[in-house]
Amino acid sequence: MPKPEAPGTLAHKLAEQWPSYAAYVVSFVTIGVIWINHHAMLRRVQRVDHSALVFNLLLLMLVAVLPWTTALLAEYLREDDGQHLAAAIYGGSLLAMALSFFAMQRHLLVARPELVVDTIGPAERKAIMRRNMVGLLPYVIATAVAPLSSYLVLAICGAVGVYYALPTTTSSA
Amino acid sequence: MPKPEAPGTLAHKLAEQWPSYAAYVVSFVTIGVIWINHHAMLRRVQRVDHSALVFNLLLLMLVAVLPWTTALLAEYLREDDGQHLAAAIYGGSLLAMALSFFAMQRHLLVARPELVVDTIGPAERKAIMRRNMVGLLPYVIATAVAPLSSYLVLAICGAVGVYYALPTTTSSA
Amino acid sequence: MPKPEAPGTLAHKLAEQWPSYAAYVVSFVTIGVIWINHHAMLRRVQRVDHSALVFNLLLLMLVAVLPWTTALLAEYLREDDGQHLAAAIYGGSLLAMALSFFAMQRHLLVARPELVVDTIGPAERKAIMRRNMVGLLPYVIATAVAPLSSYLVLAICGAVGVYYALPTTTSSA
Amino acid sequence: MPKPEAPGTLAHKLAEQWPSYAAYVVSFVTIGVIWINHHAMLRRVQRVDHSALVFNLLLLMLVAVLPWTTALLAEYLREDDGQHLAAAIYGGSLLAMALSFFAMQRHLLVARPELVVDTIGPAERKAIMRRNMVGLLPYVIATAVAPLSSYLVLAICGAVGVYYALPTTTSSA
């Protein structure tokens, strides 16, 4: 914006709320990417056991926590007190979600391989697990840098979401 | 109403809230029409790639923003300060939704035509794209007239929704 | 309760909120019954046209209004000012929902009979329409008695919901 | 935490809210377990009658009440006034949900056995009913101990949820 808006106007109020918009977009994209990956995971499944259902509930419970951690980060992003804690909780909630996704993936592909269709061979299973484990790393880093800067946490999480949303060379037909 | 209601009564309070009702109906009808069109779009699809899923998430993210822009317009419709900005944001949010729909349609029909069933020939594809592009125009106009009148923005968006909801001569069997 | 609770205690506060509970149950049961009937209606459909989809959206829009009219009735049920208006709006919102259901039913069975499976003959179509029309009557009455008593409106709407939820002699297999 | 947080800081505020987190997790896990069981119940069904649909709505209505009873318990868990009542309402809401599940199960397996697939013999039906009845007991106890301690109510309900979520020796393929 060319010049700062007068305080009290709608434009000023809306501009002040930008952390809410940024956090909303980052969380939405992250959940969206998890959703696409979840769909891909379930396409490989031929039947489920009790543990798979419980892992799935755990993932859902952690996704359902995100609106709360997102609002927390948006509220405290620019506060002197609490911004680092809020950012650690936000990064940690994304990490927890990614970890529960990883645990479910591992249960299906490694612990109970008979739940997955036979056309997925051992090499492909290993490749999927490796990609999943690499995907955990950015959230570990995002959570770890929370004491440095809450903006950095949000930026890393946003970059991860955008990276996975970008078109890939391999189609997920 | 024959005579103005006394301030403080329920009738008065409810009558004062009419922008909320109008904006609710306009947004609901608009999302409903997009939903019907989205269903028609997906019926033509035989498989999806990663980009189609991401376009779909983008559309969903913009639809999920509408309750906020709708409430903003309802709150500021009659305010001296902010009514033009709120109307521009409202019109702009509908335009963004329509644009993301157009982009997904274009990806399926033009960029990656193999994703759509073969029975949809080149002429029909062009006709669908042309209809979609024409459908963007009213939202461009609605957003552009925001500096003139917030009521006009709401009226144009409402008229577009009603127009698409009206019975057509061709059945979408 | 044997003796009135002391004001300010939780028991007192919860007891004071009984209109919310009653209105919640009545609205939930009414939407539930409409849902069951909607499912039965769609089981008879072999294809839909644009108007059927729009009728369906209209019904959904009116269902989505119910939480608001329910909260309004709960808030004003015992108020001197506004109880009659709130009750009329509540009864009217249920009537509007029932009318839109009736209009969709009529569109499918009478106006565009080819949308419904052939096994439903003219006699059965007439019987369904007659039952639907009779089902409108209690909501007309409930709305009409709003000037007399808001309690009566809630009682009639509740009785209708319970009546349709009760087991019938004919199974809807 | 090694030392108590200073009042007013974010860490202090979040630590103060722990009953909300605990109650959220307990309710989420309980609904999740009911969901898994509900899915198993519906897999045995070959058709439904009107009563089965109404039992299902009743269950849904009681599930939809849980966010309210959960928030009530979280708010009053540590209050001098109201903690016992809030805990009784919370335990009672879980008991009511479990009872409605039991009633639906009983309707399908005992009252109208023809609704369930033939491969489920009399012995298995009895075993399912027995397991369901045993599952009611902890919620009866949880509700009954509300006058003693609200913490105990939450602990029992949490233990039940975790118990059913734990891996079993029999897979629910």
Topology:
The structure is a homotetramer of 173-residue chains.
Chain A (H helix, E strand, L loop, with lengths): L9 H7 L1 H26 L6 H27 L6 H29 L10 H23 L5 H16 L8
Helix pairs in contact in A: 2-3, 2-4, 2-6, 3-4, 4-5, 4-6, 5-6
List keywords for this structure.
173 residues; mainly alpha; homotetramer; disordered C terminus
Tell me what the structure shows.
The structure is a homotetramer of 173-residue chains. Mean pLDDT of chain A is 92; it is low at 169-173. In chain A, 39% of the residues are buried. In chain A, α2 runs antiparallel to α3 and α4 runs parallel beside α6. Helices cover 74% and strands 0% of the residues of chain A. Chain A has helices spanning 10-16, 18-43, 50-76, 83-111, 122-144, 150-165. Chain A has six helices and no strands. With 173 residues, chain A is an all-alpha fold.
Q: What is the number of helical segments of chain A per DSSP (H or I, 4+ residues)?
A: 6
What is the string of SSEs of chain A from the N terminus onward? HHHHHH
> How far is the first residue's CA from the last residue's CA of chain A?
43 Å
Secondary structure tally: strands of chain A: 0
Quick one: overall form of chain A?
A: elongated
Oligomer: homotetramer
CA-based gyration radius of chain A: 19 Å
* Low-confidence region ranges of chain A: 169-173
> What is the percentage of strand-forming residues of chain A?
under 5%
Percent of residues of chain A in helical segments? over 70%
Mean pLDDT of chain A: 92
The biggest beta sheet of chain A reads: none
- Name the largest protein-protein interface in this structure: A-D, 18 and 18 residues
